[in-house]
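re: ur msg from earlier - yeah i can do the XIL complex, just paste it... oh wait u already did. ok heres what im feeding in:
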Amino acid sequence: MTMIDRRGILAGSAALLAATTVRAADAPAGTLKAATASKGRRFGSAFAWSPAGADAGSFANPAYAALLRRDCDVLVPENQMKWQAIRPAADRFDFSRFDPMVEWATTNGFALRGHTLFWAYSRWFPAWLNNHDFGQRPAIEAARILDQHIDTVTKRYGRKIDSYDVVNEAVDPDTGNLRETSLSRAMGGTANVLDHAFRTARAAAPHAELVYNDYMSWEDGNAKHRAGVLALLADFRRRGTPVDALGVQSHIGLFQPTTDAGVVAKRLEPEWRAFLDRVTAMGYRLVITEFDVRDKGLPAAIGPRDRGVADFARAYLDIMLSYPQLGDVLAWGLSDRYSWLRGFEPRPDGEVTRGCPYDTDLKAKPLLAAMLAALAGGVRQVGQAA
Ligand code: XIL
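and the outut:
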């Protein structure tokens, strides 16, 4: 090695060290779980399965695992507990990916949320379930398939999973009506399927918090979705369906061009509070199950974009955290590098979406600081279930 090479390497590592030091100094003090615990809540994130060492938002990626350890009390599988993952056929289960996630989480001291026992949306059914022949007595066969699923999952993991999104996304946002599926046609209506799922979950996992989870949100265009969810929650109460909490997915977003996220948030606040007031008045707790921020309406430039994301998130979380009925707060991933938004809702300009607290290099962003401030400043939660 020549002197020049060596000097180059030394200069390179000095620069790296300096960069690391600056970044560490810039990182806001405290962790998300500590900020959240100061108000009696748990913070968490989605995580995934991958082969050891893969570049993924997985426990098997040491860099991502370090973030999970730093910030999270509770983890939720992003995809690996869904029917598409664990139920390859009517008579077969496959836990080969989810089991190691549960194992890693529990041996490392994390709690787990279960997502989801039933995604009530045919788009996300496994193909076999959309095409299943329910035979001569369809209601009985459909209930058998659903019960078997809920019993198998809840009993396999027992107390390792203490909160379940029992039903996910049953309301059609365009109409506010319940979505139809192969199971609802077999069982004489969606309401029957949903009630059945919650009752079976309560019997099989009496220790667990049972959540109805959906993506009705505070932005324009969600009024029908919110009304549909309120009607469903009222129906659950009328029928005595055992539902403990509303899971507010919280994939919030700025979709129209804007330079002032704070102004947008102020305009959206009254209707959103009216919705949350009605939910909590029916006796439901709240859970933030899948928080991230869609940034389509913000400029490409990182500075203003990150500021807008942080301001919008701060305003949203301040509202959510003013409800003592709010329990767990979970992000749908911690890093932009692995966020589903990159593929599911790419920006028209092709820039990487920036909706998570850490960037593609797993470095802290203004959103992290906004989350820390909101979480530590929130109202203390009350009424936690046993
Ligand atoms: C998403 C995952 O993040 C993606 O990887 C997958 O392709 C589709 O599902 N609401 C939910 C989550 O309840 O299950 C979704 O997760 C995001 C929206």
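cool cool. Confidence is low (pLDDT under 50) at residues 1-26. ping me if u need the other ligands too
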